[in-house]
Amino acid sequence: MLPLFHFLLDIMATFGIYLLLTLSLNLDAGYCGIPDFGKVLPMAAGAFTVSLFTGRIATVLLGINGDFVKDNVRVAARINSVLAANPILSLILLFITLIVAAIVGAVVAYIAARPAIKRGFGPLALLLLAAGEVIRIIGYNYYPIAGGSVGVSTPDVFAWAGKYRFVVASLVLFIAALLTLVFIIRLTSSPLGRMLRAIRDNEDAANCLGVDTVNIKLKTLMISSAITAITGALYAFYSAAVISAAYNRATWSFIPWAMMLLGGTANNIGVTIGVFIYVFIVKLIDIFKYTLTFIPFNIIWLEFILYGIMIIVILLYKPTGLIPEKPIDTLGIFKTKKLYKIAKSEASSTSETKN
């Protein structure tokens, strides 16, 4: 039973991380049509916030001598010993970091997208893709951010949970993903959701109706990137480390696209199902990888091969995903029926008066 519990716990944490990431992608790419191939940019920015900001502010607040990155082993150990005995301080540090990470994510998205947001699909896609690679290279080569190629240990804001540390961390990720799901469903079911889809489907028509499409697209990308940066910070806290080389395009940019396409673009429930299916399959591969001896290549490449095959199959046979996009009923079905009855009643009254 214990291995099954750890398996379910691992799925819960991974599902939470990728659901947060893919929901944010679905907001800007699925609903608004922004070619966001640089999800790794705000993801890495959120993680670097933990190493660059949280670690140093904790060092200063606790009066610990030394630099958090240069003396990482000693300083991180002292910080974690204090946090293990002080859950309130740990939670305050967690929430402050998430707020700062969200701001950083929105800012880097604005900086990266602003030069090309008016230039169309191609230039914006290339610029976001390049920006994602740039931040990884900077983090890998500039030691003060996150220890360069070695990486750093982060303040463990879940250390107070003791032996239940991974249980608590997994629950936090899962709950954060569910709250984000509710938020994005409400957001995209509002009139804003209709406007985003109008921009995606016909930007020229939206401009003719007086919609500032450039401003809306930029703000949508910033909100999406803020959610992604929060995901990066939560992932850094969960893994208790930030390693620059781990923030690559395949894992944090392209795989979320596969999950979104599998579930169905512009459909939050579909995206949730797509994320779960992909995560579950990958975790099964991880469990049974030593028994798959018949595979004529290294098992570490199986996930990426699965990714490629999945994209091809989806685009050929199910381009709308498992759950296709549905029209948004902005007012809700009950309000719509009520307004219909009122309008019908008023029309009948007007007709009787004329007669």
Overview of this structure, please?
This protein is mostly helical and 355 residues long. It has two domains: 2-247, no CATH class; 329-355. It is 73% helix and 1% strand. The longest helix is centred in the first third of the chain and has 30 residues, at 2-31. The mean pLDDT is 90.
Short description:
73% of the residues lie in helices and 1% in strands. With 355 residues, the chain is mainly α.
Secondary structure topology:
Layout: H1 2-31, H2 40-61, H3 72-84, H4 87-113, H5 121-141, H6 143-146, E1 152-153, H7 165-188, H8 191-201, H9 203-208, H10 213-239, E2 241-242, H11 249-263, H12 268-287, H13 302-317, H14 333-354
Antiparallel strand pairs: 1-2
Class by alpha and beta content: mainly alpha
Give the count of structural domains.
2
Q: Which whole number gives the mean pLDDT?
A: 90
Question: Count the strands?
Answer: 2
DSSP strand (E) fraction? under 5%
Question: Given the C-alpha coordinates, what overall shape results?
Answer: globular
How much helicity do the residues have? over 70%
**Straight-line N-to-C gap:** 77 Å
Instruction: State the order of secondary-structure elements, H for helix, E for strand.
Output: HHHHHHEHHHHEHHHH
Instruction: Give unreliable regions as ranges.
Output: none
Radius of gyration: 23 Å
Identify the strand order in the major beta sheet. 1-2
The DSSP helix count reads: 14
- Biggest beta sheet attributes: 2 strands, antiparallel
